[in-house]
Amino acid sequence: MNAVSRIAISDLTVEERLELIEALWDSLQDDAGLSPAQIEKRDRHLAMIGGPVPASHLAEIERRMETFEQDKADSVPWDVFRERLANKYGF
Fold first, then answer.
1. Organism's domain of life (predicted)?
2. pLDDT tens digits, 29-86
3. How crowded is residue 61: how many other Cβ atoms within 10 Å of its Cβ?
C-alpha cells in the first residue's frame, strides 16, 4: 500500500489539500539522494510542465539581467544593427 492510498484525500479540508499540494510541489526541488543525471532529468521534466526553476537557473537569469541593465546604454536597436551589417557586408 502506498502513502497516498493510506490517507483519504477527500477527508481533508480544502486548506489541508492545498497545503499537501504545496508540500508535494516543494518536494520536487529536493536534490537529496539524487544523482546528477536524475537531477538533470527531473529539471528537464519540470521545465516542460512549468514546474519549479532550479536555483542555478534563477541565479543565471539574475546575472544576465544585471548585465543587461549595465550594458543597456551601449546597446542598439535591431533595425540599426541590421542596417550597419547591411552597410558593412552588403546584405
1. Bacteria
2. 666 677 888 877 877 777 777 766 777 887 888 888 888 888 888 888 999 999 999 9
3. 11
Sign of the CA dihedral running 54, 34, 30, 6:
positive
87, pLDDT greater than 90: yes
For 87, the enclosing helix (H) or strand (E) is helix 78-89
Residue 2, pLDDT above cutoff 80: no
Residue with cell 541565479: 59
Query: Rounded to an integer, what distance in angstroms lies between the CA atom of residue 4 and that of residue 23?
Result: 13
> Do the Cβ atoms of 28 and 49 come closer than 8 Å?
no
CA–CA distance, 69 with 91 (Å, rounded to integer): 30
All cell numbers assigned to 64: 544576465
